[in-house]
Amino acid sequence: MKLLQEMTVMGHERVVFHQDPESGLRAIIAIHDTTLGDALGGTRRWCYASEDEAILDVLRLSEGMTYKAAAADLAMGGAKSVILLDSPGQEASEAQARAMGRFVETLKGNYIAAEDVGVNEQFCDWMGHETDYVMGGINVSRGGDPSPFTSLGAFNGMKACLAHAGRPVDFAGLTVGIQGLGMTGYKLAKLVVEHGGLVIGTDVNPHTIQRAVDELDIKVIGDDEDLFSKELDILAPCALGGVLGPEQISGMKARMICGTSNNVLVDPDRDGQMLKERGIIYAPDFIANAGGLIRLAGLYLGLTEDEIDRKVGRIEDTTREVLEETRNYASAYEAAVSYARRRIEAGRTTTAGV
Asked: How high is the mean pLDDT of the chain?
């Protein structure tokens, strides 16, 4: 991969690499855009097939965070970090977390770390022993688990999809397919069930599935069944990204897509246009799943609980605005990026005028 060329094309400001021999940490921080402020973004621990795959992931994720923060009207830029694991499911260690904290500290607040796949409150607190620039812990850093806010935001996004489709904003009798029943997927399923909807779920972890069945009484599909081809009112991708490409979209029967995953489309431009052509309403992920960022960034920026709750609630309005604007663009994704970029340019203009 020609990294500098890729950074130029995508508009990244900095990509920083770090390795710590003592703990075995290998990590990358990508800062995409800090026009609106310092950048908060989660730290993802993952076993990548190659370094190029890890670099591409952190570049795409950090770009999405820029748009997510801008669309949520936060005085924050966009960044992300990844920790490269040696094997899938490698256990987290305090030594590695502290080493990551020291890495984050070198950027002096230009990047603020938080939770993502493979990182929990404990890991954030371990990082917090080495840097003040981390959110999501309980005892050392602050903010706690942001997943309830991510799930609530996506639920609000679903309401916008229903309204845009001209349907009652009512989940009674609706069938929602949730791919991934982990932290955000489970909580989203709970909201749907509590509001009268039927959930069909899937997950690679049998314990996660069993919990959802026991506590929420959802329906689970077998390993030989494809959730994406089921008759659904709403499809909610809530696991990793890159799950919807031409093969999945061409056979999709869901009328709407709204979940908590990041970068759900394999090729956002191509696949977003295909969704529009098929008449499938798509709530762009960085709009719908912004609740967790709003929570942690809001606390970091000093917003009150009421202000944070209002911003999470506004995800419904923002999603509706973007869906309405889609008629003027090739896809909902393109409309959402334009919406976010307008906010960034407004911030750039304001800063230049000071």
From this structure: 96
Query: Is the Cβ–Cβ distance between 280 and 257 less than 8 Å?
Result: yes
Burial of 211 (0-12, 13-18, 19+ CB in 10 A): middle
Render the burial of 2-24: b for 16+ CB within 10 Å, e for the rest: eeeeebeeeebbbbbebebeebb
> How far is Cα 192 from Cα 182, in angstroms, rounded to an integer?
15
- In this predicted structure, the answer to whether residue 350 has a pLDDT above a threshold of 80 is no
Spatial separation of the C-alpha atoms in residues 294 and 176, rounded to whole Å: 25
The pLDDT tens digits for 50-101 are: 999 999 999 999 999 999 999 999 999 999 999 999 999 899 999 999 999 9
Handedness of CA 221, 227, 232, 234 (dihedral sign): positive
User: Model pTM greater than 0.70?
Assistant: yes
Pair of tokens at residue 145:
């688990």
Is position 276 annotated as part of the catalytic site? no
Q: What are the start-end ranges of the E strands in the chain?
A: 14-20, 25-33, 39-46, 78-84, 111-114, 175-179, 198-202, 219-220, 234-237, 256-257, 281-282
**Residue 92 CB-density burial (10 A; 0-12 exposed, 13-18 middle, 19+ buried):** middle
Which of the residues 2, 68, 80, 190 is marked catalytic?
80
* Tokens standing for residue 79: 């960044």
Residue 349's pLDDT band (cuts 50, 70, 90): confident
Provide the 8-state DSSP code for 326: G
In tens, the pLDDT along 172-181 reads 999 999 999 9
What whole-number distance in Å separates Cα of residue 78 and Cα of residue 65? Answer: 4
Tell me the two tokens of residue 213.
């069945």
Structure confidence at residue 351 (pLDDT): 57
